Amino acid sequence: MTVQPYAIIRDEPIATETPKDIAPIRQFARTPTNVLMATKFAPLNVVVDGYLYEGFSVLAGRQKLGKTWLAIDWSVSVAAGGCAMGSIPCDAGDVLYIDLENGQRRIQSRIAALFPDERARPDLNRLLWMTSAPEVNAGLIGELDKWRQSVADPRLVVIDVLQRIKPPGKFGRNAYENDYSIWAPLQEWATRYRIAVLGLHHTRKGGADDPLEALSGSNGLSACADTTIVLDSHQNGKTLYVRGRDVTERETAITFVGNQWTILGEAAAVRTSGERAVIVQALRDNREPMTPSDLAAALGKPTNNIKQLLYKMAKAAPPEVHRVGKGRYSLEPLPPDNPDNRNNRVQGDDE
């Protein structure tokens, strides 16, 4: 069956500077469901498994939190075929890093900081740098395409930061419309050539309940992006949150030591582990059994949360805490002949 496309109708071209040998993208084509379901699609190109895939992605975070270090970590791992964040193997490929905030001297110092022993430095010939670039609508797509055609296996483009290539919005459009239309050509180029484009961006002060709402500016950027990644730091440590069209939503606990990012584990598990450690330390410091209310007051946590965690800790094998008497917990169990053992069944607290 031949699928006849409609004529392509656009108010504006995707990119006027795109080379003429690039065929136009077919749009507005009707495809029968049976034809669609019989189509064999190639799997997504994986750049950093679980976080970064082909398409347009945004990495957002507060200033001076380490976004550039993370982007360099991923770039080096891909260019050298190493492990991102110390544990995620990456297939080797060509990388273009557009650094619009740091000159070549600072770039050199950062690579040297990552690999102080020059003899142990991997071959990074596949990682290319640019320290200037045109705006999205003034030649950027054409420059990206020149790079794409000049290398053997184009896999990743990093733009640090997006604000430096953002043109002014058009009169008569709201902020959302302007942002979406500005970034759409970049998303379309990345999707068409199955290359990961990672743009660094800032989050607004004060944060938000939904991580995607924390991005500075309108929601047009996150709506256009295939994947949004948010680097954050709070009382429970540093986390990397990811949500996208083709990735599983996740929040990972990470740490930044010696200019390198390292994965600690899933944030919820690491957070719980940390809370358990705090409870154990509080019981050790107090030297006497404590009720959930005592612990909640000492730790500044909700009593119900402490109750639930104590219950799980007492049921663990081996137990991390012991229920001694009625509604009290200790690091050591009561002697077998202690009469309070009759109240030592772990059934939740009834205080």
Summarize this structure briefly:
30% of the residues lie in helices and 21% in strands. The protein has 351 residues and is α/β, with parallel strands linked by helices.
Structural notes for this entry:
The protein has helices at 33-38, 67-80, 104-114, 140-150, 175-193, 220-224, 267-286, 292-299, 303-315, and strands spanning 46-48, 52-53, 55-61, 83-84, 88-89, 94-99, 127-130, 154-160, 196-202, 227-234, 237-244, 250-257, 260-266, 322-323, 329-330. The strands form 4 sheets. Strands 7-6-8-9-3-10-11-12-13 form a 9-stranded mixed beta sheet, with helices on both faces. The chain has a two-stranded antiparallel ribbon with strand order 1-2. Strands 4-5 form a two-stranded antiparallel ribbon. By secondary structure, it is of the alpha/beta class. The termini are far apart. 31% of the residues are buried.
Q: What's the order of the H and E elements?
A: HEEEHEEEHEHEHEHEEEEHHHEE
Class based on secondary structure composition and strand pairing: alpha/beta
Low-confidence stretches: 1-23, 344-351
| Beginning-to-end CA distance, first to last residue | 72 Å
Strand fraction equals: 15-25%
Number of strands: 15
Specify the number of helices.
9
Order of strands, widest sheet: 7-6-8-9-3-10-11-12-13
The best one-word shape is: elongated
Radius of gyration: 26 Å
What is the makeup of the main sheet? 9 strands, mixed
Q: Helix fraction?
A: 25-40%
Give the integer mean of the pLDDT values: 86
